[in-house]
Design a protein that fits this description.
With 699 residues, this protein is an alpha+beta fold. The protein contains 22 helices and 19 strands. The strands form five sheets. It has a seven-stranded mixed beta sheet with strand order 2-3-4-1-7-8-9. A six-stranded antiparallel β-barrel has the order 10-11-16-15-14-17. Strands 5-6 form a two-stranded antiparallel sheet. Strand 18 and strand 19 form a beta hairpin. The chain is flat, with a radius of gyration of 32 Å.
Length: 699
């Protein structure tokens, strides 16, 4: 009987497989071996695509005459620094006593590509090949993955998509970078006073550069517009004893002799609604603000000219609002939150998430899904039971187990098989807690964030009591709304141990959802006073004020919001059908987005402020933007970039063939390269350079 060979992506993963299989293995150079099994590993990529000069020496020199370069067959070679490990792996794959190969590289497109390149370069034939697809590196999950491993051929479409993604990046990178450098490299070099200027172009990274430059230019061109709001301060708790008989002609409502009343006031905002004097008036900036301060003051003068000024309650709406626990983390959401909480880059977040995965503490990080599979939901009690040993959340995990709230998970919005492609959301496994002390402080906090997001889904919604008030003063309408937290629900779980101490109001605002105004300073006595109000009651107006505001420019991207923007590229696409078509594809993938941002910073097209994680274009980046904008403009269009990603997904799904995709790719690269070769637009580009530089330097 032949041996089984297990090939992982990294040495640490290979050891976990050996441990799960209880292989009493002898350590060899580059692999482990027992009587019936061999475990080996790659070290990331062992094989890569060859440079053009491997096809013909003439391609070594950049020349317009040798592009477009589109080979009919692509060449590959072993990466110089890992030749020793490739030789070991290749020898094992071809050993006569190896009968079945278990492919245990990361369960995703890139992991598929890593193995298939090795197999191709090693010329493996005549072996059974099984694909192990797992969501965590726990012993239980590894054994399940091996037990349920499918024939590798079941993943041929995914493998084809992986090859195409690499070919696409290769062809666009080589042809577009060469043609643009040859045409415009010298002018860029001269303008920036650099020794050299290679214009690097990529399917995804050029589009990201374009989004950052466009945002920066929107900010530069933004002109602040002042506007003037009117607010009225009303006393809401001085309720007269006999409202029906009180006309409001007296200086104030009657109170019992000797009574003591603590005044409660609320602020209402004026709006120009339908059937009022200023509705759709040209004097307005928006329905709640004037363009000129004098017009706001004039209205206040009219409304306050005859004291005592009273406001008539036109309507009081009372309702309860519930806020459900948020969906679970996918990589993009985790990267965004880590950028916000810890000011770390998406690349660093991915590194930490990968570390937690390899320590068995969390599930596979490179996922786009924010839900669980129905199969996982049936076993979720195991994750919860493990978390009872995690001191920061042990009580919450125990409460979930005790209440049994996890038992109905399959029927909630947190479980949806249709929303999962390769992997479900990032959750804690409940295992590997003995590794906590080996984590650096930031990694430990990232783990806490993942745990709390996970546990939150087993708790009820947060419940708010909301009151909306509408009053009129001389026919003009004023509005206010107030909200207080009545039941914490999942918010109890969401309180991070590392968070700075905040007021209850600040915490409610943070957790309630980004500017909903939870709390609004509405204490219980105040809310009781507001709740007693009824239509027809008149309230004293203490004063009115003009509040000056001004419009705000768009916000710059930070590393986290950039990742989310790449994930949700459809927001930039006007065509509704195309927007629907690329939904779920975005720009890049969860596995590549962080690396793309990192590259743009490394080649100095973008600048990343490490303290704030704010991203801005460099002058070089703006020059490159102008070059691309005047030559291969579609590369700056998120619709094009996302549609290429959608095409790769369609290949992986078997919707279109590899040949169909490659034909479109060849045509696009050839056509666009030849167009640039024929362009004669240097004078126009020089003007754009001058304009861009002037704007950049004046910021």
């Amino acid at each position: 009987m032949g041996k089984n060979l297990y090939i992982a992506e990294k040495p640490s993963v290979a050891r976990e497989f050996a441990k799960a299989l209880q292989i009493n293995a002898v350590g060899k150079d580059g692999y482990l071996e027992s009587a019936d099994s061999v475990v080996t590993w790659c070290v990331g990529h062992l094989v890569t695509m060859s440079y053009p000069e491997a096809y013909d020496e003439k391609y070594k020199k950049w020349s317009l005459s040798t592009i477009p370069f589109i080979p009919s067959e692509f060449k590959y070679e072993v990466i110089e620094g890992v030749k020793k490990q490739f030789k070991i792996v290749s020898g094992l794959l071809n050993r006569e006593d190896v009968e079945t190969i278990y492919v245990c590289t990361d369960s995703g497109r890139e992991g598929e590509y890593i193995y298939r390149l090795v197999e191709q370069q090693a010329h493996v034939t005549g072996k059974k090949r099984k694909r192990v697809w797992i969501d965590s590196q726990t012993e239980e999950e590894i054994l399940r993955g091996i037990r349920e491993a499918k024939d590798l051929s079941a993943y041929d479409n995914l493998g084809a998509a992986a090859y195409l993604r690499a070919k696409e990046d290769y062809l666009m990178g080589i042809n577009f970078s060469r043609v643009l450098t040859l045409k415009y490299g010298n002018p860029v070099k001269a303008y920036l006073k650099r020794d050299r200027a290679v214009i690097s172009v990529g399917r995804v990274m050029t589009c990201v550069l374009g989004m950052v430059v466009n945002r920066e230019r929107e900010i530069r061109e933004f002109v602040k517009t002042p506007f003037y709001r009117i607010t009225a301060s009303l006393t809401v708790n001085q309720t007269p004893l006999n409202m029906e008989k009180w006309s409001g002609d007296s200086q104030g409502p009657p109170y019992p002799e000797g009574s003591s009343v603590t005044e409660k006031n609320c602020e209402c905002e004026w709006r120009a609604v339908e059937n009022t004097k200023y509705f759709q008036s040209p004097l307005l900036y928006k329905e709640n603000g004037f363009k000129e301060k004098k017009d706001a003051q004039a209205l206040i003068g009219y409304l306050m000219d005859t004291p005592p000024v009273m406001a008539m309650v036109e309507g009081v709406e009372r309702k309860k609002e519930t806020k459900n626990p948020p969906l679970l983390y996918n990589l993009a959401e985790l990267q965004n939150d880590c950028s916000k909480y810890f000011k770390i880059s998406p690349d660093e977040t991915l590194r930490i998430a990968q570390e937690l995965y390899e320590k068995k503490m969390t599930t596979y990080p490179r996922t786009d899904a924010r839900v669980l599979s129905s199969a996982v939901s049936k076993e979720i009690h195991k994750n919860l039971r493990g978390l009872t040993n995690y001191s920061l959340a042990a009580g919450f995990a125990a409460k979930v187990l005790e209440s049994g709230s996890y038992k109905g998970m399959a029927k909630t919005r947190y479980v949806n098989d249709k929303q999962i492609t390769d992997h479900y959301a990032i959750i804690p496994t409940g295992q590997g807690l003995n590794q906590l002390n080996s984590l650096n402080p930031t990694a430990a906090k990232v783990y806490e964030v993942i745990v709390r997001r996970f546990l939150g889904i087993f708790f009820p919604p947060a419940v708010y009591r909301k009151v909306s008030l509408n009053v009129s003063i001389k026919g003009e309408q004023f509005f206010a709304s107030f909200k207080v937290l009545e039941e914490e629900g999942y918010l109890r779980v969401a309180a991070f141990s590392f968070a700075k101490k905040k007021s209850r109001q600040e915490q409610e605002k943070d957790e309630a959802g980004k500017g909903e105004g939870a709390g609004d300073g509405a204490d219980p006595d105040f809310m009781d006073a507001v709740n007693r109000l009824k239509k027809g009651i008149r309230l004293p107006v203490k004063d009115m004020q003009v509040k000056e505001g001004e419009t705000s420019p768009p916000k710059r991207y930070n590393s986290g919001t950039m990742i989310l923007t790449m994930e949700n590229a459809g927001q930039f696409i006007e065509d509704e059908d195309l927007r629907a078509q690329i939904k779920g594809s975005g720009i890049g993938t969860s596995a590549t987005r962080a690396e793309i941002l990192k590259k743009l910073v490394n080649i100095q097209y973008l600048a990343l402020n490490k303290k704030t994680q704010i991203i801005t274009p460099t002058l070089m980046g703006e020059m490159i933007y102008e070059v691309v904008h005047n030559s291969i403009r579609p590369l700056l269009d998120p619709a094009l970039t996302a549609s290429w990603e959608k095409g790769l997904t369609m290949v992986a799904d078997g919707t279109i063939t590899e040949e169909e995709y490659m034909q479109k790719l060849d045509d696009f690269v050839s056509r666009r390269t030849n167009i640039v070769k024929q362009l004669n637009n240097q004078s126009v580009l020089n003007q754009q350079f001058h304009k861009a530089a002037a704007n950049y330097l004046s910021k």
